[in-house]
Design brief:
By secondary structure, the chain is α+β, with helices and mostly antiparallel strands. The chain is built from 12 helices and 10 strands. Strand 4 and strand 5 form a beta hairpin.
């Protein structure tokens, strides 16, 4: 069982002899999440809970051991495992929901994870049918974190074998994909690279999957509908981008597209594991409601909640609106 857990959480920890000397987190994983992952692995091997936990909770070690057994199983089943403090907190709260409130909150505090009252709510799940105004929908391949341009724009790829895509692939792209496969089989990599460039110019590319399979995929640039995140050079622009990366990296997305914007991007609602991404960006204070283009009242409500709680960009005094910032730079002011 230890080997299976090692495989599952290998990205979330580096070995450490004590809880106090926390393992170093890889990029995108907080120290608190790494510490919890480390202690779960330690429990899997030794059946021992971390020293010092008893100072934060009311239950004795026997009860604590039962928590770690449950958390170990929940962590193993999570796909992917938690990477952010919010994701780890939700896993703990959901797994230990029948236990004493003081114990759950104490366990979260022990790892420096946000308590229930600090977590943004998740109220919107993916609809069972396309919302009004949707032109088409699709599911993406796992998202490359480098494809996130900023807090409201992301590049995704869609498998062309899907029903919608299969009938609209240009003939020259199909032919280039076939010829590229032949060129690679003959180890003519120069020709294969040239054929890949032809496909890329047409908005397609051959993607290698983790299982070694190659598939032809179509590229879409997605503009998240109804929100406007700070630009990269603005205060909180980097943080907004990082928050979006944490939510979508390595995951498949469900996207409902309403149309294209003036830059050729597909404007859509994005759902990740059933969670509405725009809602989370607004609730976490990572974006503004873009009311000039989307008047949905729930978007204004989620922004107002983040403002009131001083989350994210709302913790800074007088944050500048992204659309005003862009206008000033276009006008050279």
């Amino acid at each position: 069982m230890g080997n299976s857990l090692l495989k599952l959480i290998s990205e979330c920890l580096k070995p450490s002899s004590t809880h106090e000397s926390q393992p170093q987190a890889p990029p995108g994983v907080s120290p608190g999440v790494s510490a919890l992952a480390h202690d779960l692995l330690h429990f899997d091997i030794t059946s021992q809970v971390p020293e010092g936990l008893g100072q934060h909770v009311v239950s004795l070690k026997k009860a604590q051991a039962s928590w770690y057994k449950k958390l170990l199983e929940a962590w193993r089943e999570a796909k992917p495992p938690p990477r952010t403090p919010e994701e780890a907190s939700r896993l703990v709260i959901q797994t230990l929901k029948r236990h004493q409130k003081a114990d759950v909150e104490g366990l979260l505090a022990f790892y420096g994870l946000p308590g229930p009252q600090s977590l943004p709510e998740i109220s919107t799940v993916a609809p069972s049918y396309p919302p009004q105004g949707v032109q088409y929908e699709f599911e993406t391949l796992p998202v490359d974190p480098k494809a996130v341009a900023d807090g409201d724009t992301i590049t995704v790829y869609v498998d062309t074998s899907s029903p919608r895509e299969s009938g609209i692939v240009p003939r020259e792209v199909h032919e280039a994909a076939i010829e590229r496969a032949r060129a690679r089989a003959a180890r003519n990599y120069k020709e294969a690279d040239a054929l890949q460039k032809i496909m890329v110019a047409a908005g397609y590319r051959v993607i290698n999957l983790p299982n070694g399979e190659e598939i032809l995929a179509r590229k879409y640039r997605i503009r998240l509908r109804g929100i406007d995140a700070p630009e990269g050079a603005m205060p909180y622009g980097k943080e907004a981008k990082e928050e979006l990366v944490k939510m979508v990296q390595g995951k498949t997305l469900k996207i409902y597209v309403y149309g294209d914007d003036q830059y050729g991007r597909s404007v859509g609602d994005i759902y990740c594991n059933g969670v509405y991404v725009q809602e989370q960006m607004l609730r976490r204070g990572c974006a503004w409601h873009y009311a000039a283009y989307d008047q949905r009242p729930e978007l204004a409500k989620w922004e107002a909640e983040a403002r009131k709680a001083h989350r994210g960009l709302w913790a800074t005094p007088n944050p500048e609106k992204p659309w005003d910032w862009r206008k000033e730079r276009r006008n050279g002011t």
